[in-house]
Structure formats: C-alpha cells, structure tokens
Amino acid sequence: MKTMTCKQLGGACDEEFHANTFEEIAKMSKDHGTEMFQKGDTAHLKAMSEMQELMKSPEVMNEWFEGKRKEFDALPEN
Q1: Which of 8, 11, 29, 75 has the smallest number of CB atoms closer than 10 Å to its CB?
Q2: Residue 74: in which H helix or E strand, if any?
Q3: What is the pLDDT of residue 44?
C-alpha cells in the first residue's frame, strides 16, 4: 500500500489517500474532489480550475497523469 496526499495529486489539502494501485488512489482523489466541490471549498475549487486548464490539452493532461503515476510507482510501500 502507498500513500499520496491531495496536494500531491493536484489538490489543495494534506488529506492522505492509501491504495495499492495508482488507479485506486486516483479514484479516491477524484471522489474527494467531488466532495470538496459540493461543499464549495474555495481552495479545492481553485485547484480544480487549474486542472480544467490542463484538460484542455490531451497531451499536457496525459503527461501530467503519467508523471503522477511515476511518482506513485516510486513511492515506498507503507
């Protein structure tokens, strides 16, 4: 199992996510983002706006996503 924070995954806080695969941790991050969006959390809304800019270019978004996958893969097991 590995751990990444919301901030490490492009978010706005230090909440930790624990998962065995990058796909699992990405889903946890997405679910957390959805919850923060529904609460109207301004810091997370700003981070989401920045992510939306990345999404405008599929190449840039893929590079970002692969970079996060490599970061996850390089983490030690906890």
Answers
A1: 75
A2: helix 58-74
A3: 96
For residue 55, pLDDT beyond 90: no
From CA 71, how far away is CA 73, in angstroms rounded? 6
Backbone angles phi, psi at 53, to 5 degrees: -65, -45
> Quick one: which H or E segment has residue 78?
none
CA distances in angstroms from 44 to 2, 21, 23, 29, 74, listed in the order given: 23, 24, 21, 11, 26
Distance CA 66, CA 48 (A): 18
Q: CB of 22 within 8 A of CB of 73?
A: yes
Question: For a pLDDT cut of 90, what percent of the chain falls above it?
Answer: 91
Distance CA 62, CA 52 (A): 13
